[in-house]
Amino acid sequence: MKFVCGRLAVLSVAAALILGAAGPPCTHATPADMAVLPVVVPFECLICHVEANPGPASAALNLFGLDFLAGGRVWNAELAALDSDGDGCLNGVELGDADGDGLADGNVTTLATNPGDPGDCSRLGIDASTWGALKAMFDNR
């Protein structure tokens, strides 16, 4: 009996090592990750990933996704104050939560820009400070 249990333990460890080595790192979005962000519609997975339908072979993260992961998968004022994709709009502005408190600003239910797309904020023709001032007016701040 000792021999069988010992062999099963060795096989279990070996299987875990093989599966762990063969599988992707744990960077896939989960419903819990999506729930942490204030607004995700319409971009959803593209907020953090370079592909709309990431899978084990295509789970690469964009610049915002890398910052989100590095910050412990937490949405807060620090991450909101960054411009991860370098497009001139702060992450918080792009995710509809300028102060990073986890609550969407005003009546924001869909996003106009994506914090993981370095080219989309410039299409609005509004810089980050102007956008923040406009949002603050509508939020009665």
Structural summary, described in words:
This protein is an all-alpha fold and 141 residues long. The protein has one domain. 38% of the residues lie in helices and 0% in strands. It contains six helices and no strands. The radius of gyration is 20 Å and the shape is globular. The relative contact order is 0.13. The N terminus is likely disordered.
Count of helical regions: 6
Shape: globular
Domain count, please report it: 1
Relative helix content: 25-40%
Tell me the strand percentage band.
under 5%
Question: In this structure, how is the largest beta sheet organized?
Answer: none
Low-confidence stretches: 1-27
End-to-end Cα distance, whole Å, is 71 Å
Work out the radius of gyration. 20 Å
Q: What oligomeric state do the depicted chains represent?
A: single chain
Let me know the number of strands. Answer: 0
Average per-residue pLDDT, rounded, comes to 77
| H-E order | HHHHHH
Q: What would you call the structural class?
A: mainly alpha
